[in-house]
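Morning. Coffee machine broken again, so started the prediction first thing and wrote up yesterday's gels while waiting. Chain of 324 residues, entered below exactly as on the submission form.
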Amino acid sequence: MLNANKLVRDTILGKNNSTVTPVYGWLFENMRGKIQSEFGSVENFEDKYNFDLAHIFGGPQFCDIEEIERMRNRNIEITPEMFLDMPLNDIDNAGDYDNVIKALKHHKQERGRFCYIQANGIFECLNNVFGIENHLAYLLMYPDELQLVYQRQAEWNRKFAEHAIELGIDMVHISDDWGSQNSLLFSPSLLRGMIMPYHKATCDFVKSKGAFVSLHSDGNITDALPVIRELGYHLIHPWQESAGMSYDLYLREYSGQFAIMGGMCIQTSLGFGNMEKLHDDIRRVFGLLKGKRWVCCTTHFVQEHCSLEELVYAYDLINKLSGK
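Came back before lunch.
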């Protein structure tokens, strides 16, 4: 039986010489109740389908989000300068990592899975502070102040990554949505000048510790791919074909640079009750990506309109095609 952790590592690095494709899925956010009704728990579903990875959440929030929401509900506009006067939360409180330790015991120690942890990026997390519309405006209005905000956030992110790696996390998974359905939310020059340096701080640190680093960004991030390559990300999720990112582009230009995770689209395939289309879509993607630097996964959390019957159908087929 293949070691799941090694299988995923080898796949990410392009060294998977087996005929098995790693399998995962973002299920627990909306599907928990349906899965529990049939399998008893999401964990039992993961065991049944021999998931090779685990997506771990935990650790401290970077700031007092509840206070931020109270201020915004009072129509207080939080500018970068104001936010710099607000403290970030303690990154070193050991008790905040208890559920990370518990999850690692379940997934890594007991089941041998490759474990990655959700981590803050630079842009997405601060949308919770400023609001996305204001944040986009601040990139042009307050670039100097915003860079100080980003610098502080990057240092907090680096320390979070350090604690996670010390606990046994295999990959730091940085969530930083940059894409709309058709293009980046900002220009490539703003990405390179304003955001890239503060991703580099985390990427360089994680890699220096011998761990993997990955990026989650929804939407069409084609114009960001040169930056992602330069930063040295090991994997990106989801490579959103439904947003215009063709797998041909990945295979032609980027498969030698990083791995991708995804392939089972929650926008166009899974959750729409069309079993024939779902079957054809899954087979098509396996035909394109099997044997490549690819982890089969949903492109995001499976949506609540997906039936359990359809989810089971999808994973029965995925396990068959994966070689498990």
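Residues 143-167 form the longest helix (25 residues). Going to sketch it on the whiteboard this afternoon.
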